[in-house]
Write a structure and sequence with these properties.
The chain is mainly α and 82 residues long. It is 68% helix and 0% strand. One of its GO terms (cellular component) is exodeoxyribonuclease VII complex.
């Protein structure tokens, strides 16, 4: 696996990064790669994992923003419990 022939992780969707990360892990688990190839795979895997985490953090932030927006737009009940 040549790192130079792979797309920039910043351009990958979550699904693309996740799928490639699965392939990288599988190749590492199979063994048989040279030390240099294994190091390149490991580094690529770390980069892909970080990209997936970026996507997940962004999704979490969007959900929190949407929840806050929904909460703030709900009508207040005056006199509740009084």
């Amino acid at each position: 696996m040549s790192v130079s022939a792979t797309p920039d992780p910043a351009s990958l969707s979550y699904e693309e990064a996740r799928d490639e990360l699965i392939q990288v892990v599988s190749r590492l688990e199979q063994g048989g790669a040279t030390l240099e190839e294994s190091l390149q795979l490991w580094e690529r895997g770390e980069t892909l994992a970080a990209r997936c985490e970026e996507w997940l953090i962004g999704a979490r932030q969007r959900l929190e923003t949407a929840r806050q927006g929904a909460t703030s737009s709900e009508p207040e009940t005056s006199g509740a419990g009084a």
